[in-house]
Specification:
- The chain is of the alpha/beta class and 171 residues long.
- The chain starts with 8 loop residues before the first strand and ends with a strand.
- The chain is globular.
- The strands form three sheets. Strands 3-2-1-6-9-12-11 form a seven-stranded mixed β-sheet. The chain has a three-stranded mixed β-sheet with strand order 8-7-10, with no helix packed on it. A two-stranded antiparallel sheet has the order 4-5.
- Helix 1 links the parallel strand 1 and strand 2.
- Helices cover 17% and strands 28% of the residues.
């Protein structure tokens, strides 16, 4: 929250598989600064559209969630009456990663949803950190797809996240 501007939210994610689980961090942040969190959802938006995309929606721990198009628990705009958030409404995105190589290519759980989101210049302008488990930097190049958007090569340790993950790399 210290990195967020007035009225901006922190974009988190719901953990899948081996991704770091930031739900305890979300609970703590909500206690300290209520109403500043957002979760992604892969949905067709606006309602009736057939194109799936990654969107962020306002979220608070305890809010109802439903499976999105990837079967991940997510806020649902149709059920909640919420509109997806615009890039300027997020001050920081925390992006899950299973590994990152020295060129900044992130290995996630598949799908390329974050890369497609970040290919949009408005979303690329939102500061983002990849949150990785231990031993996350691969000495060898990771498989690279045409849509992959590399992370910056710098690394940052933050006390708020260190208790929940071993390393945070700046996008």
């Amino acid at each position: 929250p210290g990195r967020l501007g007035a009225g901006q939210r922190l974009g988190l994610w719901w953990p899948v598989g081996a991704e770091p689980d930031l739900r305890p961090l979300a609970t703590e942040l909500e206690r300290r600064e209520p109403g500043r969190l957002a979760l992604p959802a892969v949905l067709a938006w606006p309602s009736g559209d057939t194109v799936l995309r990654l969107l962020y929606l306002a979220w608070r721990p305890g809010d109802p969630l439903a499976p999105d198009a990837c079967n991940i628990p997510s806020p649902q705009p149709q059920a909640s009456g919420l509109a997806p958030l615009a890039p300027h409404q997020l001050g920081l995105l925390l992006v899950p990663a299973l590994a990152i190589d020295r060129t900044g290519i992130r290995l996630g759980s598949g799908g390329g949803w974050y890369d497609r989101l970040r290919a949009d210049p408005a979303w690329r302008a939102v500061p983002a950190l990849a949150v990785l488990p231990a031993a996350c930097v691969s000495p060898e190049p990771l498989p690279r797809e045409p849509w992959d958007v590399p992370f910056d090569r710098s690394e940052e340790h933050t006390s708020e996240l260190q208790s929940h993950s071993d390393l945070v790399c700046r996008l």
